[in-house]
Amino acid sequence: MATFELYRRSTIGMCLTETLDEMVSNGTLSPELAIEVLVQFDKSMTEALESQVKSKVTIAGHLHTYRFCDNVWTFILQGASFKSEDFVQNVDRVKIVACDSKLLSQ
Amino acid sequence: MASSATSAVYIHVIEDVISKVRDEFINNGGPDETVLSELQRIWEMKMIQAGVICGSIDRSSGKKQPTPGGPITPVHDLNVPYEGTEEYETPTADMLFPPTPLQTPVPTPLPGSTDGSMYNIPTGSSDYPTPVNDNGGNTDVKGGRPSPYMQSPSPWPNQRTPLSVDVNVAYVEGRDEVDRGTSHQPLTQDFFMTSSGKRKREDFATQYQNGGYIPQQDGAGDASSEVAKAEGSNGSHFLGRHDSATAAKSKILAHLARSSSKIPQLDGPIPDPYDDMLSTPNIYNYQGVVNEDYNVVNTPAPNDLQAATPAPVAQNDTVDDDDDEPLNEDDDDDDLDDVDQGEELNTQHLVLAQFDKVTRTKSKWKCTLKDGIMRINNKDILFNKATGEFEF
Questions:
Q1: In CATH, what number is assigned to the domain containing residue A67?
Q2: Of the candidates A56, A91, B115, B135, which lies 20 to 30 Å from B290 by C-alpha distance?
Q3: Is the pTM of this model over 0.80?
Q4: pLDDT value at position B108?
Q5: How many CA atoms lie within 13 A of A14 on its CB side?
Q6: Least CB-CB distance to B355: which of A36, A62, A100?
Q7: How many domains are contained in chain A?
Q8: ipTM > 0.90?
């Protein structure tokens, strides 16, 4: 089953990647096993986001750049605001990377 | 500091991953449980350091170790394996760029003379042993060559050579050129002779046949070489120091020619110039043959030339591109790079999600996202659904 490696770029994903890299370079872990762990992380993360998260966010801003390549949308916003029922966050620049949700369900 | 909700989700994910890979770690002969525990421990520690989970260990509630510092080290370790002892040693050019191997194929000195052209002799027979050997030491060998009328492609590296002092090399003045030319022989020799650097006639043939090919990058200057061959064949008995040098060159050329003959020829059959040359003692005939040989000789060379020229052409292109690049490369710099320069993960606000739909009406963009992780203002926020409206 294919997974979105997208979430590896998140904080949690980067921490895992770093940890695995350290262990592989130490020789503690084999590269194949490290890749398996990452794939499992992809699955677990996707599943957790679907099932465990229930918040809704609204995004608004000026679209500086848009790109659609390999079924991945990349937006760069300027002066963006993120609103949720809990919070409001404003940033001057943010990148949004989005994969096609239909690809996973195929 | 991470919210408890996201922290809980992350902890859940960590545990889920660890439990699911536990089988892999234990059952399939992988590392133990201890390694798995270590993995989990380090992962959680990093997450705490990044401030995304509220660990049970209250060491870093307010402390956010800059993640750029984190990744740098391991990445650095991974990418720079030799940095073990001297971590901060600036990699020298030698370290970064291993000395280019001796691959520069015989850089034809081509003093504009026939010397260079000699390299392009395409001998018809491929058995021509490596002529490289003749750095002048093999004068005797060369001189002793049987008459050039040998038809069989026997290994006789020096046969062509003992010749044409006149054409190719002057005794004294030309010696420098000869030396230059011969100086390249070791290079070619290295290519040709897979085993020892010593030139042994016996070895030449075999090695040469195995020697394969030398990418010939010098221009074809076949005429003189052919003439040289002719003269050499004529003057097979003729020995001379200069001849040896010349012979050496001839050999090299012949060798190259032989090697080149292995290159698939696309423009017609190779008429075996060697045999033609042998059979016709007359120089003029040789020249006639040489004319034919031009076609043959040139055949491999152009291939090589064609192979060679793209490289400089490409280089030229890149040079041209360098001129063009500055025109375009600043397009986004002013807008975006200033903001993020020197700042990495922490300040690069990022949203990773899946999209359900992205639409646009004129300059109004709308999108619906789901299952996303947002990292903004040093905080991790997760969402199940998001809608965006952007103005382009």
A1: 2.30.18.10
A2: B135
A3: no
A4: 52
A5: 24
A6: A100
A7: 2
A8: yes
